[in-house]
Design goal:
single chain, about 375 residues, alpha+beta, six-stranded antiparallel sheet, globular
Length: about 375
């Protein structure tokens, strides 16, 4: 039987549904993180803003409390970038991507630091951190003794050789610099999974959060070779589709697949939201003509954006002046009147969430 062909709009609506952007969810926070495949979190507020757009009744304290209680955790994981994941998913994400992260770093740093150099430095980090939390400056001093010329460079590479988590209060809404570290094995307990099992979970999490998709898209997101994912896919019961270019797409069973005609509400995305990165390009949640407006050499981290009818239609920012908070909308296109009302209503709720202690809140601009 011929495989079903999914249009770009079908893929867009599937992504929105799985990312909880068609309708806010009442899922518990930890289950939502697993449903979303984690959240990219180089900028601490991004996690809070991303969850606000996706969860009914979300409050700042909900995520901070989950981090303090070690039910959610931040660590350097996929593509050697900081991700927020559930405690239960942490070791699968770490071990499933570890060998690829190490290989990528050794290619990047060829002829300077060897695997033996990094193993030795990692052993020193484990000894220094055993049973305690340490500040980044203390760890950088350790790196400086081994590599006086580029200690920060060595420190950045070490995340692929020793699993560390960011310890609250660092990396939270109130203290945004993620500069306190603990050993993941101390913070969460030792792993009870293998790299092979971790890869399988990474594949399932991606498809449940962003699918249907090509294995190449999963590889781009996870930062692992496609060949490794092909091995991980063996034995999994996957649905198969085709896109409009006839490329094969795979998917987990029973994941949402709404019609392309499904209405999509206005939604706000934070810096680094994973939906606008290149692995999700096929969904056109970020129209290609707007990509240079969201990512450029001066802002490689992306700007916060808003969605109209399931696609990025502009960017936003919040500014604070004394006790007054203003959210400014900068549209890339003319926003239809009906969508504009929806967008402004969402913006008014967001500025109050973003600046809860301000005495006045305003929204300007709307396209």
């Amino acid at each position: 039987m011929a495989e079903r062909v999914l249009s770009t709009r079908d893929l867009n609506r599937a992504l929105l549904a799985r990312q909880l952007l068609l309708e806010r969810s009442r899922l518990p926070l930890v289950r939502a993180l697993e449903r979303l495949g984690g959240i990219q979190a180089q900028y601490a507020p991004s996690s809070y803003l991303g969850l606000w757009s996706r969860l009914e009744g979300f409050e700042l304290a909900h995520l901070t409390r989950a981090l303090e209680r070690r039910r959610a955790v931040q660590g350097t994981l996929l593509r050697s970038t900081i991700h927020l994941v559930s405690a239960g998913d942490y070791w699968s994400f770490a071990l499933g991507s570890r060998s690829a992260r190490q290989a990528a770093w050794l290619r990047y740093d060829k002829k300077r630091l060897s695997n033996a150099d990094l193993e030795g430095a990692a052993a020193e980090v484990r000894s220094l951190l055993a049973g305690k939390v340490a500040h980044r400056d203390e760890l950088l001093e350790l790196a400086r003794r081994r590599d006086p010329e580029r200690p920060t460079h060595l420190w950045n590479g070490l995340s692929a050789w020793v699993e560390l988590v960011r310890a609250p209060p660092s990396g939270t809404w109130d203290r945004r610099r993620a500069d306190l570290y603990a050993l993941a094995a101390d913070w969460l307990g030792r792993p009870d999974t293998t790299p092979e099992q971790g890869l399988k979970l990474l594949l399932r999490r991606y498809l449940g959060a962003f699918g249907p998709a090509r294995l190449a898209d999963v590889a781009n997101w996870a930062g692992v070779p496609v060949a490794n994912l092909q091995t991980a896919a063996e034995g999994l019961r996957l649905r198969r589709f085709r896109n409009e270019e006839s490329a094969e797409l795979v998917d987990v069973q029973r994941a949402p697949l709404p019609a392309g005609s499904t209405p999509a509400p206005a939604r706000f995305l934070p810096t680094w939201d994973a939906t606008v990165l290149v692995h999700a390009r096929a969904t056109q949640i970020l129209p290609e003509e707007y990509r240079p407006l969201v990512f450029d050499t001066k802002t490689p981290h992306s700007t916060p954006t808003f969605l109209v009818d399931g696609s990025v239609a502009g960017k936003w920012r919040v500014e604070r002046s004394g006790k007054n908070a203003t959210l400014t909308l900068e549209s890339f296109e003319t926003v239809p009147a009906a969508a504009k009302r929806d967008l402004r209503g969402e913006a008014e709720r967001l500025v109050r969430f973003h600046e809860p202690d301000a005495e006045s809140h305003a929204v300007v601009g709307a396209g």
